[in-house]
Amino acid sequence: MFLWKGTLLPNNNHLPVQLRLLQVKCVTNNSRVVGLLAQLEKINTESAESDTGRHVTSKILHLVQSQEKTRREMTAKGSTAVDVLLSTLENTKDLQTTLNILSILVELVSAGGGRRGSFLVAKGGSQILLQLLVNASKESPPHEELVVQVHSVLAKIGPKDKKFGVKARINGALNITLNLVKQNLQNHRLVLPCLQLLRVYSANSVNSVTLGKNGVVELMFKIIGPFSKKNSGLMKVALDTLAALLKSKTNARRAVDRGYVQVLLTIYVDWHRHDNRHRNMLIRKGILQSLKSVTNIKLGRKAFITANGMKILYNTSQLPVMPVSGPVAQLYSLPPEVDDVVDESDDNDDIDLEPENEIENEDDLDQNFKNDDIETDINKLKPQQVPGRTIDELKMYEHLFPELVDDFQDYDLISKEPKPFAFDGKVRGPIVVPTAGEEASGNVGSLRKGAVLKEKVSPKREEDEKKPASVGIAREDVKDNDRALQQPSDDQNKTFPSASGLNSDIVKALDRITLQNIPTQTAPGLTAGMKKDCGLPLTVLTCTKACPHMATYGNVLFEGRTVQLGKLCCTGVETEDDEDTESNSSVEQASVEVPDGPTLHDPDLYVELVKNTKSVPEYSEVAYPDYFGHIQPPFKEPILERPYGVQRTKIAQDIERLIHQSDIIDRVVYDLDNPNYTIPEEGDILKFNSKFESGNLRKVIQIRKNEYDLILNSDINSNHYHQWFYFEVSGMRPGVAYRFNIINCEKSNSQFNYGMQPLMYSVQEALNARPWWIRVGTDICYYKNHFSRSSVAAGGQKGKSYYTITFTVNFPHKDDVCYFAYHYPYTYSTLQMHLQKLESAHNPQQIYFRKDVLCETLSGNSCPLVTITAVPESNYYEHICQFRSRPYVFLSARVHPGETNASWVMKGTLEYLMSNNPTAQSLRESYIFKIVPMLNPDGVINGNHRCSLSGEDLNRQWQSPNPDLHPTIYHAKGLLQYLAAVKRLPLVYCDYHGHSRKKNVFMYGCSIKETVWHTNDNATSSDVVEDMGYRTLPKILSHIAPAFCMSSCSFVVEKSKESTARVVVWREIGVQRSYTMESTLCGCDQGKYKGLQIGTRELEEMGAKFCVGLLRLKRLTSSLEYNLPSSLLDFENDLIESDCKVTSPTTYVMDEDEPRFLEEVDYSAESNDELDIELAENAGDYEPSAQEEVLSDSELSRTFLH
């Protein structure tokens, strides 16, 4: 019953007179509607006279119509007003009372939108109103006003009731509404709400078929017709209803059989011709929606093409000038339907949600729908450490933690008396200092049983590393039958050609550097230049045309296989005209920031490592960007502003292919599926290649003279995940605009629509001392195309389409060799090279560095495990104890091969940890770092986007990893389980990822309180007590890292992420600070880099800043400073600011993260291709404490910790 029974006021004599008067007025208004509802309830109970009911409901209607406050009051949480109204509606026999209540309900749901509609549904309104409709239909004739009102309310609340279609069918309401339309076609006032309700009925596929059998399709074509200024509102609703009905294949076939496709086209042309002022755009859109629905079946598409539909729609879509104002401009400036995700690195990319039913008010989507993926079970959310494996099973990892038992007797440490030292916590048992010979050796057995020991470097190998490495020694002990995928026998002795057919003047000298036959004393300029790499500009990098000692094209190397570089445009550095020379000099004048410390790139070492890398296609070439290396260009690369109309133009050009088929060349110019395919010899055709590590390009089709369709490989042992690309192009001419269309992408949206550009690497530019990847391309769009995905490739769903990335490039040099990539490539061999260089250059007296092999992958490649910390001050007992008691930090990266930015961030972390920076030394003295820099080597090597060789997303296997199918995850989790078993739980776990749809760098963490808070269950949320320490590190990073954005962070735990590293390490291992750190593939829209595309400098800087953040976290989480000098802490901020110098941002401003472009295609039918929808909008909203922003370090430690 009602909570507000009386009108007594509290004693408020102490209040000011004005406030007392205001309160009296408010209570009077409140009491008025409360009193009326109380009277109405009494009437229901006592079955009073109908006149009283009419009088009371009339007064309530007046209040509802005149006061929004009354409407809010009646639908407020806890109010029983709607219950009283529905009860009266169900029991009254008085027509006027019924009409009054229906009018009240119409007012409530019309003004309040979806929330009030859902409120009415929750009170049982759907069933009561449907029954009222059935009862009203029994009268002959039915009361028109009653029928209109009932249909109006049902049309509003129907979309909010998930079972509305079933209820309507069971009650027999479908035929009632349909017959009303048939019998009253000329009564537009009655037909309009009936059509609106038919549209809601049709959202249920069974209802749609049932209505179709009863002639609803034919009925709709009696209502719609040629252009008319009358009844345009009725026409629009009829078309919307027809479009919903035609989504049923049965109804679509019925429409085709009756020739309605031609009718729809004729009607569309008529409306287009007469609607000169664009006042009826929604009607034209409704016709197009109906055509779209009917062409979802093959029969419909055939009828559409037969009726010349392609040409008709193409001709009518040519809008020369877009109006600045008016209905058209308003239509194109509708609010954006943001298709965003919370944790895209952990997404199930192959799972698409069914298209949502059309909802009149899209702003009123149920909150419950948005939170469907949030875990709401508190018991499941609470971290519960699960042993997983017994301590005996985990002993296999002891040898990977020698730092816990090493006594450093073999180290030449400076022996000195230790300073007074107190442990931060209790010593867990006696510390035994064994001799070096007692160290556990581990078992190198099978892949299932153990991880292999530290790699031993043979004296011969050490000798080889000191000498200039030869660039082509045979891979040893490699047999074809050991491969996961065998080469055809007739191709085993073939040379794998790179893209060929260059100008004969170009294909000389270094046209083909076979990796075996280059004498170490030759090409000193080239060798010296390459050895320096990061010390560029490479002004010494020159070569001559005549190089008789170089191998010629196609030399066969070891065991019938080649390991070779692709073509090198080596006529020497191309002679440039005056304009080019001027621009080059300006670039050379700009200084290139080179990080301190050792140069990590060594081309000869890279080639040696490539030969030991095992790939499924047995790659035999080395891409030049990986050989030359990459340095960040010295100029800024702003986020691209896309001019209006580009996407419209591109789609129109695609349609022209079907209309003017005679203009299309349609010739295959590259095909990995056909090993016998020969490259065309014509001089004006581009040559393509992707047969190198991390390469991905499957097929190329020449469409027009300078336009090519490109098809990507799916991930191995999978039939989807087409996104990552990395390929070589040659044979180009300068000054020609080449268009590339990658036509089989799968994600429903991309940052390519919001300013991101693909990357290009020019070999000519590298020879001109500019060895860098740069952002290129104009007219860049990402849109849905007409190529359909098979149900197998679409996760069992039919009707899904592929998406196209299109971009246009003008090449600066003739017959150059250029490479294109989705993001900055970082291969497995590059990682191995960097680790070897770091190991050989570090100071063993200062830095404890160890590189082990965690396990072998399915393909037989080793997965490196790196340990970094500071060598103890001496081998005194106290110093050894301090060394062993350091907390662990566990880092991992590159579980998804296509997220190459994660490797660049990891490179920044590794270089910083190995640097001589005093802050880095303090960091090493504070933590022991266990790092798995590449969790998916096989995927990276073979050019996958997301999966390993098993065809599975490894970041979905952390709950129950299989040691045979997912060895890297199994053993990485084993390391963490071992640390938990020996009571050395890591302080921080962080998995580095990349994000393709959001800007900036941000983190995902795990919080029970915030997860519950997002379910809108505030009562439950307030009961949860949780340590807020998980927010400390992201807060720190938001203050010290320019690219980091705290507002993009989320700490919500989703059901779909329960098997990811972040959630499993938090829930099962018990690491509170378990994170995924996401780095954008595009750029930043806030902070220092606002308006700039992200580069490797910024990514590496983020890795370094993450380290600095850990040092600050240490100060907050420890009562002991580990004897850090106060002077260091005082100038730490200065060190932070000076470590990574990055150019200042431009003045380019983006108003929002992903604004809707005016010509953007509507993706609403397929936009929900991820499980976690719209959570990101609220991801950063939760703030546990208002004072958190202004607390000092010491205050933060007291607030966040313990």
From TrEMBL:
GO cellular component: cytosol; mitochondrion; nucleus
Renumbered residue ranges of the record's region Disordered: 456-501, 575-598, 1182-1202
The keyword Zinc is annotated on this UniProt entry: yes
InterPro entries linked to this entry: ARM-like, ARM-type_fold, CBPC1/4, Cytosolic_carboxypeptidase, Pepdidase_M14_N, Peptidase_M14
Active-site residues per Swiss-Prot or TrEMBL entry: 1078
Pfam families: Pepdidase_M14_N (PF18027), Peptidase_M14 (PF00246), TPR_CCP1_N (PF25571)
Keyword annotations of the record: Carboxypeptidase, Cytoplasm, Hydrolase, Metal-binding, Metalloprotease, Mitochondrion, Nucleus, Protease, Zinc
Residue spans of biased composition, Polar residues class: 484-501
Cofactor(s) for this UniProt protein: Zn(2+)
EC number: 3.4.17.24
Domain Peptidase M14: start-end pairs: 824-1114
Gene Ontology biological-process entries: proteolysis
Bias type Basic and acidic residues, positions: 456-483
Subcellular location: Cytoplasm, Cytosol; Mitochondrion; Nucleus
A GO term, aspect molecular function: zinc ion binding
Function in brief: Metallocarboxypeptidase that mediates protein deglutamylation of tubulin and non-tubulin target proteins. Catalyzes the removal of polyglutamate side chains present on the gamma-carboxyl group of glutamate residues within the C-terminal tail of alpha- and beta-tubulin. Specifically cleaves tubulin long-side-chains, while it is not able to remove the branching point glutamate. Also catalyzes the removal of polyglutamate residues from the carboxy-terminus of alpha-tubulin as well as non-tubulin proteins such as MYLK.
Quaternary structure, from the entry: Interacts with MYLK.
PANTHER family the UniProt entry points to: CYTOSOLIC CARBOXYPEPTIDASE, CYTOSOLIC CARBOXYPEPTIDASE 1
Family that this chain belongs to: Belongs to the peptidase M14 family.
UniProt name for this protein: Cytosolic carboxypeptidase 1
Naturally occurring in which organism (per UniProt): Heterocephalus glaber (Naked mole rat)
Name of the encoding gene: Agtpbp1
